[in-house]
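Q: I'm teaching a short session on how sequence maps to structure, and I want students to see two examples side by side rather than one. Could you give me a first protein with its sequence written out and its structure tokens following it? Keep the formatting plain so it prints cleanly on a handout.
A: Of course. Example one:
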Amino acid sequence: MNTRDIDMLRGSLWDKIIIFALPLALTGVMQQLLNAADVMTLGKFVGKHAMAAVGNNISLVGLIVSLLMGLSLGANVVIAQNIGAKRIDRAESAVSTSFILAGVAGIFFCVVGEALVSPIFYFLDVPKSVVEMAESYLRIFLLGLPAMSFYNFEAAIFRSKGDTRTPLIALTVASGVNIVLNLIFVLQFDFGVTGVAFATVIANVVSALILFRELLRSDGIIKLHFNALYVDKDELKEIVRIGLPAGIQGMVFSLSNLLIQAAINSLGADAMAASAAAFTIEINVFCVVNGFGQAATTFVGQNYGAGKLRRCKRATWVSMGLSALFMQTLCFVILFFAEDVLGLFNEDPEVIRLGVIRLWYIVAPELINVAMEGFSGAMRGYGISLTPAVITLICVCGTRVFWVFTAFRYVPTYETLMAIYPISWLLTTIFLVAAYFYHVKHLKPVRV
């Protein structure tokens, strides 16, 4: 076993889950740092309208990235279950299939995204003061989708055998490249929004190439034989069966956030800039929650493949307990220093005031997300991916659409918009808990 691999089938769980989840959480933070660096650079050195332009795209970018990450999570589960069941041939087939799927998905969403930029911006009713910059940023960003897709699938391959540190190292290097290029393109060449967009694309290419090299050099199950790639139809079907609903579940959040973004746009550039800054902070809390949720997915996946159902259940509860502990600590720090942290992005008093409001509405109740991600992650580890996706679609998207067209229409304030986040989380969690216990009680044997 590689020194970075984790034996998920034997021994204590809490320490292994921490070792797995924290690098994964930090990887998520590094991914967000790519966006945060863009927003911070523009807010400090260009202005709040440029900052608002990039912030307007956060939900759009999240929509596409969520689908790619969901598909890659399908690869994670399939490979992990095969490793747990010691089906080496199938695991190797899944690795090859995942790599090809990454390229096809990245190119497809790049082309579709470029075609839909103008219609989407029309739907969002982006203010004229920022629409040109926002469109330029998004079109350049979309060019890097193939690289981003490869990175996510490559990272999923490493995580399936317990290695979360290699993807973190790759993304850390890429984040450093992004920050340096941001400063060079903005301060030295005065490229503004287009400069930070190109910096992000280059950073995505760097992270994908690093993991590609490591897969070629790897030993054992996940070694990538680039000259002998092929698609296994059975593994592809299983990856899509698990990954597509997981991607849709993530997309639902982004779709509902697009609707909320359109409502935020109606409140002006200050609200847009405040949301952009607050989002880049609050998403780091979610990265911790998501890291432990993916730990539940992978630990449950391997142990389910090995037929260890009791250990699957223990892994689920340990993951959620540790997630709550780390998340609450981070929330306290963020809320205590909220104004100071927001000031790093933009010093406008109104932007900071609105940013603080958003952080209290979203960061304070993050404990709800612990249960939501934990139970969703565990169900995906069992191969149950459609149920959490449907629940999320109905409870999150439905509730937020209803709220925007009712409560916000009658009380069109920033606070009214922010209140829907904890409300929709709570409703979703209630149904996810019920679904989890139902499915665990009626589990089917793992496929052979």
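Q: Perfect. Now a second example for contrast.
A: Example two:
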Amino acid sequence: MKLQVQPKLIIHGGAGSSLHGKGGVEAVRRALYAVIEEVYSLLVTGATATEAVVRGCQMLEDDARFNAGTGSVLQSDGQIRMSSSLMDGTLGRFSGVINISRVKNPIELALFLQNSPDRVLSDYGSAELARELQVPSYNGLTDLRLHEWIQERQDNFKRTMAGVVAEPELVESSNAGRGTIGVVALDTFGRLAAGTSTGGKGFERIGRVSDSAMPAGNYATGYAAVSCTGIGEDIIDECLAAKIVVRVTDGMSLKDAMERSFTEAQKNQRDLGAIALDATGAISWGKTSEIILAAYHDGETIGDTLEWNNSELIGYC
């Protein structure tokens, strides 16, 4: 077992266009900090990176403000279909569920699948697994998301995606989407893990698959771990999470790997963001969108990216 190290944590609640005013910033900050405080306390008391990631994802899925679990957006037929994945960097093991409905916490099924010979399940398989595990049926629909969908149906779904945060007064209404949640953790024994969960873009074609249950959007090794947010198709085209992690695993610093990857993404006109940690405890985040809703604990203090300089592609500490 590795020597004990200072745990680190970074989470995100999506990416998109600017939050409205200080009230919007503070509301999202309070929500993110509540997760950081609870999950970091788990890490300090010896929780594994995987345990911390799952707990953080559960909390973010349960917050109706974010587009995952409760508060997920609706696809074009008015149904919620969620995707989630988990990767344990030490084991090198990826698991996830795609387009699952009527469960409260998709990340819990991804956790169960970590020890299954079949580790990524689509809608029918995920539903059957939930029945086998006797997971209670749960309706994550909120009035705000239903109202959002009804408005878009009346407008023939002209918008390409739903709002990143389920509070219209907090976010610009035009193409403010890119809603996903993610958690990346480094535990006291130097182990890394990453988890990502989403309700999708909203208003999309039935059965569309996001990046969140793919290595493109969620990936970890013993060297680095990354969770992505943004336009799923753009993240898939860049294979962003895996690209960053492989670069670090091959010897590049996390800062350089993030900078190169986001420079490439910007050149390719992608709309995306990511949070990352490496085995040394370096913390980084990046975006080509206007904002990324992220918060972190660097071992001493809590910080966030909510008012981060829009001219920079990446940040780090």
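Q: What should students look for in example two?
A: Point them to this: Helices lie at 21-44, 49-62, 106-113, 123-132, 143-154, 232-238, 240-249, 254-267. Also worth mentioning: The first helix runs from residue 21 to 44.
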